[in-house]
Amino acid sequence: MTINQSQTNPSVNAINNSDALQRIRIFDTTLRDGEQSPGATLAPEQKIILARQLAKLGVDIIEPGFPISSPGDFAAVQQISRELHNVEIVGFARAMKVDIDAAVRATADAARRRLHLFISSSDIHLDFQLKKTREQVMQIAREMVAYGKQFVDEIEFSPMDASRSGREFVIEMVEAVIAEGATVINLPDTLGYAMPEEYEEMFRSVRRQARGGDKVVFSAHCHNDLGLAVANSLAAIRGGATQVEVTVNGIGERAGNCSLEELVMAIETRKSAIGVQTGIVTSEIYETSRMVSRAMNFPIAYNKPIVGRNAFQHESGIHQDGLLKNRNTFEIMDPEAMGIPRSMIVLGKHSGRHAIKHRLNEFGITLNEEQLVDVYNRFIAKADELKLVPDNELIRLASESTDMQHDPYSLVHLQVMAGTNESRIASVTIRERDSQEDSNFTGTGKGPLEAVIHCIQQAIPEAGEFEDLELHSLSTGEDARGEAIVSIVHNNVRYRGTAIHNDIILAAAQAYVAACNQQLLSGQTSDAKQGA
Predict the structure, then answer these.
(1) What PROSITE patterns does the entry give (predicted)?
(2) Which residue(s) pair with 345 in the sheet?
(3) What would the pLDDT profile of 389-402 be if each residue is shown by its tens digit?
(4) Which CATH number describes the domain made up of 409-531?
(5) C-alpha triplet 55, 56, 61: angle, nearest 5°
(6) How far apart are CA 243 and CA 246, in angstroms?
(7) Any residues with CB less than 8 A from the CB of 120 and at least 6 apart, and which?
(8) SS3 content of the chain, % helix, strand, coil (to 5)
């Protein structure tokens, strides 16, 4: 019997026309709330670069900073307001005239702007933080929204800690600020405390009971203290929110905010079931994630959904076999559609012969059955030692089995002079496959790695541009091994090399050579396919 998808999931056919889907506006606060994460401070020029990328990503609204907090933040918000005309720019302010004045001045040149005011609403905040009564806070909210309305048309108001506040008081406060001219009501789960069903119901009841609630936009702002930020944001959408406030990589105070990429891809992947859509350019997700991670010096967890290193990598032989036959067997999203390089097969002790053969074929290396068995046996032994077997190591195993060098270049020797002097000196010996000749190169750099890279670039002049280096410790103690992952770019294609060694400089050098070899081998394979 044939069962179509609509029989097993009736919602698939519920909405077939994307034009009928409601648009959820994405409010990005990476540069404001995200920067409040300890250690994530950005220089003004970094904020401007990231804001350009966020606009390219397709976010609807950008909150670039807290203008009153520092001259640098004020300057960054001002420059972003002047430069980016296709997104709405938000000036963030406490419910205080001095904050509002700074936010208004900073966003004065924006093509579209908004003032975002907040004040606490929960009793615990009022009693211990503000030391004010509900009546006093209500009066401040009214006066400051009215004051801000003199300068801007769009005013967003946030009763901070709304999810832990009395529902009746939140409704009363929302009614008051709507009466004074607020156009967007944000109901934040400031401490990540709410359960999805509670958060959804809060939106339903406030929208239904607050006078004027049918004339304003409702927004969700969720923190991830209980790991529920994305779930709560989706619940808010079910409750009537049409704007969600997010950060790239889920960066933010404590456990962070609702992750832009997770929310967007949940909506994109389950669009028919959820019944909404966003305007995000998904192909820019990965590049945006990498830019934010680098600028803030915040590494991305291996198992981070969507953009984590392991999100689209598979070691299990069963999974690898299924993926090679049909990607949809073990993947619900296409990583390449998000700008993520295709590297779905990770070779480890759970990998099978099919995956090993497939990976070697990608580099133009073909083995007969006897050679494949020999490589597989060598591979399993190496996998027990290294846990994961990088491509350069697999190619080396294939070279041993076939008694021929497959890598165009191999690193034979490396030496680095380090010390307190300004420059470091390195020398390397590189063996070229076709001639089997060894050549020596020397180079200098501010650090030992830079000196080594300069040497290798002399040896492999056709290599792509060195883009990125990741270093990870795989063990502890004096004999700890480090894993180096090097990315290079050639003709807009990214290649990655990986190496593992006790000496991290040597590991990085081997990874760089491995990335260059991948580029060259992939080019040869492509040429061969075109010729065929």
Answers:
(1) AIPM_HOMOCIT_SYNTH_1, AIPM_HOMOCIT_SYNTH_2, PYR_CT
(2) 314
(3) 877 788 888 888 88
(4) 3.30.160.270
(5) 25
(6) 10
(7) 126, 129, 130, 137, 159, 160, 161
(8) 45, 20, 35
Per-domain residue ranges of the chain: 22-294, 317-402, 409-531
Position 510 confidence tier, pLDDT thresholds 50, 70, 90: very high
Residue 4 has pLDDT above 90, yes or no: no
Residue with the two structure tokens 């984590």: 308
Average confidence (pLDDT) over 378-406 = 81
Q: What does DSSP assign to residue 299?
A: P
Q: Name 368's Cβ contacts closer than 8 Å, sequence gap at least 6.
A: none
Q: What is the pLDDT of residue 231?
A: 98
Q: Is 507 helix (H, G, I), strand (E, B) or coil?
A: helix
Question: Residues with Cβ < 8 Å from 131, sequence gap 6 or more?
Answer: none
φ, ψ at 76 (rounded to 5°): -65, -45
Question: Which stretches within 297-362 are classed as H helix?
Answer: 317-325, 353-362
Alpha carbons 426 and 446: distance in angstroms, whole number: 11
CA 420 → CA 354, 374, 444, 448, distances in Å?
50, 48, 14, 12
Is residue 513 within 8 Å of 412, Cβ to Cβ? no
SS3 category, 17: coil
Query: Which pLDDT value is given to residue 146?
Result: 98
Beta-sheet strand order (sheet of 493-501): 465-473, 482-490, 493-501
Residues contacting 65, CB < 8 A, separation 6+: 31, 32, 35, 47, 73, 74, 76, 77, 92
Q: In Å, how far from its chain's centre is CA 408?
A: 34
Please write the tens of the pLDDT for every residue from 150-184. 999 999 999 999 999 999 999 999 999 999 999 99
pLDDT in tens, 419-443: 777 788 999 999 998 888 999 999 9
Judge whether residue 326 has pLDDT over 80.
Answer: no
- Domain 22-294 sits in CATH at 3.20.20.70
Read off the DSSP letter of residue 501: E
- Please report which confidence band the pLDDT of residue 15 belongs to, taking 50, 70 and 90 as the band edges: very low
Residue pair 489/460 in contact (Cβ under 8 Å)? The answer is: no
For the record, the structure tokens of 227 come out as: 């790991």
Indicate the burial class of 385 (C-beta count within 10 angstroms; 0-12, 13-18, 19 or more): exposed
The residue with tokens 């195993």 is 397
Residue 350 to residue 319: CA distance in whole angstroms: 10
Task: Give the 3-state DSSP-derived string for 423-464, with helices as H, strands as E and coil as C.
Answer: CEEEEEEEEECCCCEEEEEEEEECCHHHHHHHHHHHHCCCCC
Q: Which helix (H) or strand (E) holds 405?
A: none
